[in-house]
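Why run this: before we spend reagent on co-expression, it is cheaper to look at a predicted model of the complex and decide which construct boundaries make sense. The entries below are exactly what would go into the expression plan.
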Amino acid sequence: MAARESIGKAIGSARERGEPALVAYITAGFPQRDRFQDVLTSVAAAVDLIEVGVPFTDPMADGTTIQRSSRAALEQGVTLKWILSELTVFSGRSPRPETPLLLMSYLNPLLAYGIDRLPDDAARAGVAGFIIPDLPFEECDELRAAFERRGLALVQFVTPVTPNERVKLLTENSSGFIYAVTMTGTTGKNVAVPAEVLEYFDRVKAISPVPVCAGFGIRSREQVERLAPHVDGVIVGSALVEALERGDDPGVFLSSLRLKK
Amino acid sequence: MNQIIDQAEAKTLLANVMNDAYPDARGRFGPFGGRYVPETLVPALDRLQSGVDRYLRDPEFLEAFNAELESWVGRPTALTHARALSKRWGADIWLKREDLAHTGAHKINNAVGQVLLAKKLGAKRVIAETGAGQHGVASAAACARLGMPCTVYMGSVDMERQAPNVGRMKLLGATVVPVTSGDQTLRAAVDEALRDWVSDPNGTYYCLGSAVGPHPYPYLVRELQSVIGREAREQILSAVGKLPDWVIACVGGGSNAIGLFHPFVKDRDVQMLGLEAGGTGTGLGQNAASLAYGRPGVLQGSYSLLLQDQDGQIQETHSVSAGLDYPGVGPEHALLMSIGRVKYEAVNDDDALAALAECCAAEGILPAIESSHALAGAKRLAQAHPGATLLVGLSGRGDKDMPTLQRTLLKGAV
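The model came back. Tokens follow.
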């Protein structure tokens, strides 16, 4: 089985349980570099998919929370090389953790690592796919092909301002799932989820051949309940990073978002 | 993607440049450029692209633009024969006086063009980033003139070192937002402006101030700034009777340089020199010379040369001039360098300040510290090529630099 197939499978099992898949974003090495394995372990136990964020100096799609966590991680010397070695350790545990791992990174750290060796090294570290917020579809051919060869997913984004034709193009070319941004804006702002946003998710779901996961601004169980009939998964990032920042148990916070206990 | 351009490829790319092939349909200048933005901005850039395609060829739009350039900006700007500097430095030196343009720098050419375009595209507000404050002032002025609300993002470090410009923007009716994230200079201001734009891609027009960013900005800014080179080419032909041997400009993001260079690119006998901020040294963090010391990568929407560490993290830069203090450079400059059409060198802080002082005393002109990098480059060229005709882009005036000059050149002066 190609690594990327584990993503759809994980989302499918959540749906079978009758709830949207819960996807957690964490900035690698945040809040403390030497606690990364512990954070990964408790988050993995609480969710269906993990996005591991590679910190970058210029996270232009992110709000203040992830800007802060990225900076803190960089100050502790977190690099993509370090992240891959930590993920190798994590994935190598026995029994092997079942929660699929995705890497979320801006493009430049990936280019610096080397596109020639990245797919192999990522696959060996147990990574199932990539999310690259500043790599729009028109620029992604080379990377997508390289990931494809190693069975890795490249997740595309759609937003409320994406025209239907483009939603079709992007969902048909997304692997793993389609990342449906709840709003125009950066990560971390609270989203009220008005009716037109639900209509937007319905529109994307009707078009998309891959599962639809909603992200940006999701912080509460109420939001998850409201989104549940319209999406296949919900992505929680800034709110989780803030919980980690406060020193809260990430597992407890994430369980509070679950519809089925 | 980390191409190294070999000689055969450079030859092909140069031929393409001579045929006006760039940017291509994908917004590339050879390997450089492109459009690396979050998906939210793709429809907005598509709209901008079709607006650029339509209006930059629309006689009515161009007439309105040219009318503003003439009656409000004060174009054409003068070409001044720098008689005393020519004598001192041993070459024939001509200054293209963008310092005489309204608001004191070339930035106004681009700002007025883009704000006119924003109105055509139905935007409700304009946002801009600024480093030295010149693009912020230009955007604020253009917005006031054309009746658009304007918000300017400015790094808090820059707000301090370019304080006079902050007050000017406010008087011109703009909201100035201090940026305290990242390096608190131009790069952080661009990040913040992009975040604002992502939040309202339909109603907001992002008036980007340099020839950087995602396609079509590097092209749009070049087209709006090329008025500098077109005028200068005519003026020097009529004054000297021939084209210059060298055309010289300072390069941060590279908008005044591309505006001056572009109309000379096909003049094979004209050589060109871009001067970057050499800061205090050649090490990472000591300068802002991305072409001299950078490596290819993606920042703020385009693939170009960047000052970054081995992990792809963007590095803080240093320059005495806020306007050049940027870790990237416009993709067209990266191409022009890699094919050898334009030469780029770094000028350090001290040499730039010394050239500023010489220009003040010899010509009665106070140039911006940014522009003084070009003057220092001209001085160097004059020594290597005595008697050559040098056309120097004086991109702006130095009034805004008084706080910095008080701390440097005037320190201890009575």
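Residues 23-68+107-221 of chain B form a domain with the Rossmann fold fold (CATH 3.40.50.1100). The longest strand of chain B covers residues 271-279. Bring this page to Monday's planning discussion.
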